């Protein structure tokens, strides 16, 4: 998100005109759902020579490499690993596939394929983002609905193998990990960077209503299960679960349509303004590339870290100072030539558009393969490790499938974009609750698998507790470390409790 400004001439008339332009531009932004902050974009100090150009580094100021206890080469390696964590995990894809086809223990196969699916899920998200940027808003929304949670393919493998408890707990755990762990850690990290961050309370209320509806829809069949014993009643309950699933899908698409048509209830990135900075409404540019329809407003590139001045001379000096602060890692001439050739090929129009399609198809296929090996090894892991089946389904598998959301949400929260962190966490929870969960029941219906919304007592209490804790803490528009700690503690309590849940006979 970026606001360009031209300073008017001095004098009383110019000041009045500037104030009028500011009010007009700000009112236009607020009517579109954006919130305006007059505070500095970051607690870190701006570079001296770029103060008037609004150039700043939003994270900590560059450190002198010689004053650090860690060598510069080690720091460069750590920074690169932090940016490319998913690429590192891709190394486990061939290792996990090879291990599954050799005499390796199923426990090792499970661990390797968990790491592989984590990296592939992030690649899939990036590919979906890129493809959506070339499509229209509605077509991109439908693509994201279809492929945005393809990391949940693991659940469909569990459905095909009739591991109903793994499927139920994985769906429930995916909702929990987003609205408790991801949101809680985002609040904690965000408040450590900037105190008293705020978010769109109206969008949060809408999301809370949707999650409350989902909780009611999922719990009603569970109560019927406790009061019926006859087989005919069990079949009626299965039909009831399928009917509820159809209703939830309709509600989700209605929510999707409202998000496309109106931005009032959508999470928007925060517009940062310097005090007394005049704004020309004719050149206000709002960039918004949505990650997906349910994660509304997550359209700012993940890796964006700097705001560059628009003046060419200042931009050149800015780049020079950044180069001195962050010197590139030394590379061999061969690596530089290969990198240049790769970037040249990527710049071709058809390659630029075809590459995300290739990544989408490849990552989806590999997730399916690794997910199959992962599900097949669950029984051995449960029998030969302290992990219970509830822990695997409620904690391990959701953490694997939602690791990318966790990293992205924490990153945006640390950059004072709490709305985007909320868009990731709550949006993912809504999509899983209103779309993925009923879709699993409907697909099971088509496959002849009797998948019903039958949650155990522990699972039902977990769902109720998660919803109540979430509603109690996020209905206002202010973040705090205490709120983040309470959400994270709630997730930790559920994780510990799942360890003591006995395995079904």
UniProtKB/TrEMBL annotation:
The keyword Magnesium does not apply. GO terms for biological process: intracellular calcium ion homeostasis. Pfam families: Na_Ca_ex (PF01699). InterPro entries: CaH_exchang (IPR004713), NaCa_Exmemb (IPR004837), NCX_ion-bd_dom_sf (IPR044880). It is found in: Endomembrane system. Keywords: Ion transport, Membrane, Transmembrane, Transmembrane helix, Transport. Residues 1-22 are annotated as: Disordered. Gene3D superfamilies: NCX, central ion-binding region. It is a multi-pass membrane protein. It comes from Lophiotrema nucula. GO terms for molecular function: calcium:proton antiporter activity. This is Sodium/calcium exchanger protein-domain-containing protein.
